[in-house]
Design a protein that fits this description.
By secondary structure, the chain is an alpha+beta fold. The chain is built from 17 helices and 36 strands. It has three domains: 1-75 and 103-184 and 301-413, FAD/NAD(P)-binding domain, CATH 3.50.50.60; 187-298, D-Amino Acid Oxidase, Chain A, domain 2 (2-Layer Sandwich), CATH 3.30.9.30; 419-693, Acetoacetate decarboxylase-like (Beta Barrel). Strands 21, 22, 23, 24, 25, 26, 30, 31, 32, 33, 35 and 36 form a twelve-stranded mixed beta sheet that branches. The chain crosses the membrane at residues 12-31.
Length: 725
């Protein structure tokens, strides 16, 4: 759902894109990969590539890699540090980005804009997934009809499609066709910027500038209240890119013309004459034939980005100031979001509502980052910069938009059941016998054998498995950790001395925020498979456990443990632990992460008239420390390894008619790294009787149309806070 994957595309739309810059080309790639036929119209001839560099922040690289674009293949340089100086050259701060790079699944890189543009242009038209896009150069669009998805060229030619995408930049024609947008035009932010590139070697060969050029993979900034010089590398660290921001009264420019206008070296040196002599020496190396000046334009927030069959992306929707290095990233995110919403199975009739959904996904985020860039035009504290960075980088647009589309499609379905088994009244189970007596004493000698694999994965994807807005991750990092844990229980009194197996996904670092502000942390359990009906029934009814049936088979050898999971012969999972070695379990006690297990109870009302209405709906905590006190467990053997594998196959609705929607989501979870694996054996099986409701009077919207909104709170301490509403 929302996958950028053309393999099962049926038909497809005809999409016309105005503009073939970074946003337009990224959209073309994403949309062709959805099985759509794409045509781009570019007014220029692409005769002169832009001589400047661009930041590809982790969120941008996440989106680009989805499209098959890897910046390291065309000279991308990883940003290892950020150095800040006063105009006179006094050090202010150094941020070691390399030390914190593991916080994000993807790197922050710096690339030559022309190299990125060329890679996108080639990928949009090359053989590969989907139909290669058709690029029309020297094709200036002079009119757009949003209702009929038609564009008219300057030469009189007309093209009709199913959708028109306006990627035509800050002076967008497409934007003028939107409701209430005709009079909204870009205006000067009060700043211009000189831009140019030099060879690093030129600076290394000059004794006066060598010390600056010797530091590789660094973004360096000299900052005053009104002016800023930024130098950073690209093209395999062989080129240095310069961005020199200054009041627009100090340089002459035509704000209604192209952003890439010629400038003089004399003007550059005059504007920054009070800066450190070493910086001026670097500026003096600018080639006067390639030196350009760029107007930094701003614009009022548009009330809408879409109308009927027209949508705008990138600078056409939200021109960015350069201070947070996010203009290109937001255009790329727009493109990915748009392609997710225009999924392979979308019909022409659904286009307007899907474009509205794209706007819903993107408008608030882009507007928030826009405001951050405005605030960043002045010096900021390290803490504020880090807060901004967390918000910008800690996002995966594919994951976010896919989930938004998923909710949209859920809400479009007819009234639906969220079913668990119907209550049959008091029943014997693990916590009581038929007469209501507890089974604690008889559980002390029950045995367990648990095989678990802990792995590193994507926080943004796992976030889509959280049930509502009160659940969140404790860390904004895009990296998360989780485990698949399978346990064989035996000698269970309530099962006549027999047993069963269960397999769950346990997500670390999750917290639940109560209405009074208290936070409960723990492992979140979105799904627990069991191999026997009886524990499924008791666990769902008495505990609210998210249990489903699956067959679980295991075979164990002297130093390996292997699991297979299936439904009616359809095998969907393999889990392997090899090279197991015995450990002294007294020296390696198992550790619980958080206060316990977080689960979510949902029971439907009975009756056709109440489809989709909950009878019970609330969060539950299983406090492991209390469970251990109630029924102490004793470990008898511990084996560990790092040689483990997880293999999950989503199969199909035919193969898994009641499980495919669950298994396909598990199959999406990336395994970035196996952290550890172990097999633990012992006796004393918890009956989970300590499970309790976290709070009582809470109103939720679950799997319905609730919004995620980051409230951009700019307070006297200049910090940003997020809240879920």
């Amino acid at each position: 759902m929302g996958d950028i994957d053309p393999r099962t595309a049926q038909g497809g739309l005809h999409i016309l894109i105005a503009g073939a810059g970074i946003g337009g080309l990224a959209a073309a790639i994403a949309l062709r990969q959805q099985g759509h036929r794409v045509e781009l119209f570019e007014r220029s001839r692409f005769a002169n590539e832009i001589g400047a560099a661009i930041h590809l922040t982790p969120n941008a690289n996440s989106a680009l890699l989805r499209l098959g674009i890897d910046g390291t293949k065309f000279g991308a340089v990883e940003t290892e540090q950020l150095r800040m100086f006063t105009p006179s050259g006094e050090p202010l701060a150094t941020i070691d980005n390399k030390a914190h790079a593991g916080k994000w699944r993807h790197k922050w890189t710096l690339v030559h804009r022309a190299h990125l543009h060329e890679a996108l242009k080639v990928a949009s038209q090359a053989p590969g997934p989907g139909i290669p896009a058709q690029l029309h150069t020297s094709s200036k669009i002079v009119d757009i009809d949003p209702k009929n998805a038609t564009v008219t060229l300057e030469n009189g030619g007309t093209f009709k499609g199913d959708v028109v995408i306006g990627a035509d930049g800050v002076h967008s024609l497409a934007r003028s066709k939107l409701p209430f947008a005709k009079d909204i035009k870009p205006f000067s932010s009060g700043k211009n910027a000189f831009r140019f590139l030099i060879k690093r070697q030129d600076a290394l060969e000059d004794p006066e500038t060598r010390s600056l050029a010797m530091v590789y993979s660094s973004v360096d900034m000299w900052d005053s209240d009104e002016k800023r010089v930024v130098i950073y590398p690209c093209a395999n660290n062989e080129l240095l890119n310069f961005v020199c921001i200054h009041p627009d009264t100090l340089s002459t420019i035509n704000t209604s013309s192209d952003w890439n206008q010629e400038a003089s070296k004399e003007a550059l040196l005059e504007v920054f004459k009070e800066f450190n002599p070493q910086v001026l020496k670097m500026l003096a190396k600018a080639d006067p034939y390639t030196l350009r000046v760029w107007p930094l334009l701003d614009m009022e927030t548009l009330p809408t980005w879409v109308d009927d069959r027209l949508a705008i992306i990138g600078d056409a929707a939200h021109p960015f100031l350069p201070y947070r290095a996010s203009g290109g990233a937001m255009a790329i995110e727009d493109s990915v979001s748009l392609a997710v919403m225009l999924s392979r199975d979308v019909t022409r009739e659904e286009i307007p509502e899907r474009l509205k959904l794209y706007e819903k996904a993107r408008h608030n985020r882009a507007s928030t980052v826009q405001q951050m860039t405005r605030d960043s035009s002045k010096p900021q504290s390290v803490e504020t910069m880090e807060a901004m960075t967390d918000y910008i980088y800690g996002h995966d647009e594919f994951d976010y938009s896919t989930q938004l589309l998923r909710k949209h499609l859920w809400n479009k379905l007819p009234a639906k059941y969220w079913r668990q088994p119907i209550v049959f009244g008091p029943m014997p189970g693990p916590r009581q016998d038929w007469w209501g007596r507890n089974r604690v004493q008889k559980s002390l000698k029950s045995t367990f054998q648990t095989a678990s694999i802990r792995f590193k994965t994507s926080r943004t994807l796992l976030q889509n498995l959280l049930p509502n807005e009160r659940y969140s991750f404790t860390d904004p990092s895009t990296v998360a950790y989780a485990s698949f844990s399978q346990t064989r229980l035996h000698g269970m009194d309530w099962l006549g001395g027999g047993g069963y197996r269960h397999l769950g996904l346990y997500i670390e670092g999750v917290q639940y925020k109560k209405t009074d502000g208290e936070v409960v942390k723990g492992l979140y359990l979105p799904i627990l498979f069991e191999s026997l009906t009886d524990p499924i029934v008791s666990g769902r009814e008495e505990l609210g456990m998210p249990k489903l049936y699956t067959a679980i088979e295991a075979h164990e050898r002297s130093n390996s443990y292997h699991l297979t999971t299936s439904w009616e012969g359809a095998v969907w999972g393999h889990f392997h632990l090899e090279d197991l070695e015995d450990q002294d379990f007294s020296m390696n006690p198992p550790q619980n992460i958080g206060k316990g297990d977080l689960i979510y109870r949902y029971m439907p009302q009975v009756g056709r008239a109440n489809k989709g209405q909950p009878e019970a709906e609330y969060p539950v905590l299983v406090p492991q420390e209390e469970e251990q006190k109630n029924i102490p467990s004793r470990i008898t053997r511990l084996r560990t390894t790092k040689n483990a594998r997880i293999e999950i196959d989503a199969l199909s609705w035919e193969a898994l008619p009641t499980l495919h929607h669950v298994i396909s989501r598990l199959a999406e979870i990336p395994v970035d790294e196996i952290v550890s694996a172990k097999v633990v054996e012992g006796e004393g099986v918890a009956d989970v009787s300590c499970a309790r409701r976290i709070e009582f009077c809470v109103t939720y919207t679950v799997n319905h149309d609730y919004k995620y909104r980051l409230e951009y709170a700019y307070c006297c301490r200049r910090q940003y806070t997020a809240s879920y509403v």
